[in-house]
Amino acid sequence: MSADAPRGGGRRRTMAVVAPAPAQPEPVLPAVVVSVPASSANLGPGFDALGLALELRDRIELVPGAASPRVWSSRPLPGGDGNLALRAARRVCEEVGAEPSFLLRLHLHIPVGRGLGSSAAAIVGGLMAANAWLGSRLPPDRLLDIATEIEGHPDNVAPALMGGLCVACRGEHGVTAVRLAPPRGRVAALAIPERSLPTAAARRVLPARVPMADAVFNVQRAALLVAALATGRLEVLAEATRDRLHQPHRLPLLPGLAQAIQAARAAGAACAFLSGAGPTVMALCPPEQAGAVAQAMAAAMEDAGQPAQSRTLAMATAGARIEPRGV
């Protein structure tokens, strides 16, 4: 009897052959767009600890599908590992074990080398874009740790990531940052020199040791500044933004910076200070006063032979955020 002959007069059994389903194309993940605010660090006495987000934003767009990670920028910037946004995005891929197959498009508006957090924005934008593309597998506190590691200090990356006024410090177990609402009724008046000042150059002039009296001076005023901004006691900003740790050493790097601070106060600003490492000078003013203060600071720089742009910016309550494409 053949193997497929019916047994006992029963009906013949047949085996169904199921054809394999056609291969489905891999899903194409959508692009991710992140906007990141500028930031001003130190705010006078809060060296490497305080930062304030400003409403001037870079946009970082991650487009999946590139054979290898590539960068397009709206202005010339380092490529490869020298590009901070690309370095940050690749770092996220390494952390989660993903292939960095994407193109980064950088639409840049924050001036580079002016003390307004352009490097922090690039780092945070690259981290946020890659993390969102990969399903947000890294929590915000891990992104903050990585951003600080790449940047070297947390004072700019914290407000770039979180928005508002941030107090941040590095500890044994990573970065601790506390966000406060930015001061109400104030905007930033800025004088932005045409000449840049790399942060590394501005750090080289700082002393390795400082007198105890100067350290105490800054601790007192940094604490007073946070309390004043948190409670609205803005009448004490003139005293609270004084500094002995970094500004006296950095002001001589560019003629006109000290004159700009004096011009801001003469124009009615309660306080003025270097934004980050400079060379931008920033004052906190009521909106109706900010334009005149910014122009007075820029004019003082011009008189000292340093062409500068005057500008006013609102405080940014939101940090880095995902945006719809095309916005």
Keywords:
four-stranded antiparallel β-sheet; seven-stranded mixed β-sheet; Alpha-Beta Plaits; 327 residues; 11 strands; alpha+beta; 33% helix; Ribosomal Protein S5, domain 2
Architecture blueprint of SSEs:
Layout: E1 32-42, E2 46-64, E3 70-73, H1 84-96, E4 102-107, H2 118-133, H3 140-151, H4 157-162, E5 165-171, E6 174-180, E7 187-193, H5 199-204, H6 212-231, H7 237-240, H8 247-250, H9 257-266, E8 272-274, E9 281-285, H10 287-303, E10 308-313, E11 321-323
Parallel strand pairs: 3-4
Antiparallel strand pairs: 1-2, 1-11, 2-4, 2-5, 5-6, 7-9, 7-10, 8-9
Walk me through this protein's architecture:
The chain is globular and about 55 Å long. Helix 1 runs parallel beside helix 2 (118-133). The chain is α+β, with helices and mostly antiparallel strands and 327 residues long. It contains ten helices and eleven strands. It has two domains: 32-180 and 316-322, Ribosomal Protein S5, domain 2 (2-Layer Sandwich); 187-313, Alpha-Beta Plaits (2-Layer Sandwich). The protein has helices spanning 84-96, 118-133, 140-151, 157-162, 199-204, 212-231, 237-240, 247-250, 257-266, 287-303; strands at 32-42, 46-64, 70-73, 102-107, 165-171, 174-180, 187-193, 272-274, 281-285, 308-313, 321-323.
